[in-house]
Amino acid sequence: MNKQQLAYVITKYLRDNGFNMGFMVNGELKPVPLLQGEELLRHMLVTIQQVLAVGGKIRIPELGTFEVKTRKPRMGRNPKTGEKVKIKATTRVAFKNSKQLRAIVNTK
Which terminal Cβ of the chain has fewer Cβ within 10 Å, N or C? Predict the structure, then answer.
């Protein structure tokens, strides 16, 4: 599923389940077009990126936790030549899935 398809599914779900997905035009509530769900999703992703960029942590209960982790510098080895190589410290985003997500994925 790509980003546009996910945005469509989210917007459709919100609309079908009675969430106020509309805007006022001349005093009349007009529904939000399904493709505006993509803008909602984009805003969510940008917010997550901004929080992680400053070293924050994001917990989404039914999904899992995103957080920034730092790997220490270490010595490695070039597999081709066997030469020792110094590997720099790196920062990465880690995701730990929730128990609920794990249970859903592992259901047969």
Answer: C
Residues forming a β-bridge with 22: 31
Higher pLDDT, 27 or 91: 91
Residue pair 94/69 in contact by the 8 Å Cβ criterion: yes
State the residue for tokens 């490695």.
76
72-105, pLDDT tens digit by residue? 999 999 999 999 999 999 999 999 999 999 999 9
Domain range annotation of the chain: 1-54, 59-108
Task: List residues bridging with 69 in a β-sheet.
Answer: 92
In order of 8, 17, 57, 99, the CA distances from 41 in angstroms are 9, 18, 19, 24
Q: Domain 59-108: give its CATH architecture.
A: Irregular (4.10)
